[in-house]
Amino acid sequence: MEGWHGVRFHRPVQATRETIEIIRTVSSGQRLEHAGEIYPLPLPDSAGRALQPMVRPAHVPVYIAAMGPRNLRLTGELADGWLGNAFIPEAAEVFFGPLREGAEKAGRTLGDIDLVAPVAVEITSGAAETAATVRKHAEGYAFTIGAMGDNGRNFYNEAFTRLGFGDAVAEVAELWQSGDKAAARRAVPDDLGRLTNLIGTPEVIAERVRRYREAGISTLLVKLDGDYDTQLATVRQLIDIVGGVD
């Protein structure tokens, strides 16, 4: 947040709540006055004035990529959708529990929220190719585990720990921060690459899609490698696979 966006990472849950409130005010066409703790608008002690947007009122869907329990509860309470990074169908309740709590607080259910699972998709021809591709995606988590976060807080690692990978994540983080990045990549469990993506033969991917559906995911956000023609071919094949899932 501070290195890339230039925004102080201070009280992130409250900042997210206020951002949603401001979006709702602007998109409804109302004059923008917001008595926020993080974003008081107009800015106090300034020459700024409360302005009314020149837009036709419309509902702007808000999706939150929440991982921590507090932000998940906020998502359940206020958001139109959830972007479930690192979602694993077999451990769905790790995320769905707090989401459900927030939704029920607002008189809603999980069915009122678009539950989105971002997944890399790579369709392989057999076990050897599948294993190599899973390994590639697992090793891709090493940077996330080892380099993200600050002051001992890494929200991804905390989420991975709640998903059951705490010991492995601690080892990867220690290796990365000691400078041995190659060993850190090797230490990432295969299951982090396999269970958070759609990798394998069409039959394997069909079974994984079924698990996402049974867990309650409503949308798969597909991430693809390769040039345009390769990506298009993968999407076409994936559509056929999904269409055949009961």
Uncertain segments of ≥5 residues (pLDDT<50)?
none
Structural class: alpha/beta
| Assembly state of the chains shown | single chain
| Count of helix runs | 10
Total beta-strand segments:
7
Give the CA-based shape: globular
Percent of residues in helices comes to 40-55%
Write down the Rg.
21 Å
- Our measurement of the CA-to-CA distance between the termini, rounded to an integer number of angstroms, reads 41 Å
* Binned strand content: 5-15%
H and E string: HEEEHEHEHHHHHEHEH
Q: Report mean pLDDT, rounded to a whole number.
A: 94
Domain Luciferase-like: 2-218
Protein name: LLM class flavin-dependent oxidoreductase
GO molecular function: oxidoreductase activity, acting on paired donors, with incorporation or reduction of molecular oxygen
Organism: Nocardia uniformis
What characteristics describe this protein?
10 helices, about 250 residues, about 50% helix, two-stranded antiparallel ribbon, five-stranded parallel beta sheet, alpha/beta
Task: Please provide a written account of the structure.
With 246 residues, this protein is of the alpha/beta class. It has a domain at 1-60. It contains 10 helices and 7 strands. It has helices spanning 12-27, 69-78, 93-105, 127-139, 141-147, 155-177, 181-187, 190-195, 202-215, 228-243, and strands at residues 34-35, 40-41, 63-64, 81-83, 114-123, 198-200, 219-223. The strands form 2 sheets. Strands 3, 4, 5, 6 and 7 form a 5-stranded parallel β-sheet that branches. Strand 1 and strand 2 (40-41) form a beta hairpin. Helix 6 packs across helix 7 and helix 9 crosses helix 10 (228-243). The chain starts with 11 loop residues before the first helix and ends with a helix. 28% of the residues are buried. The mean pLDDT is 94.
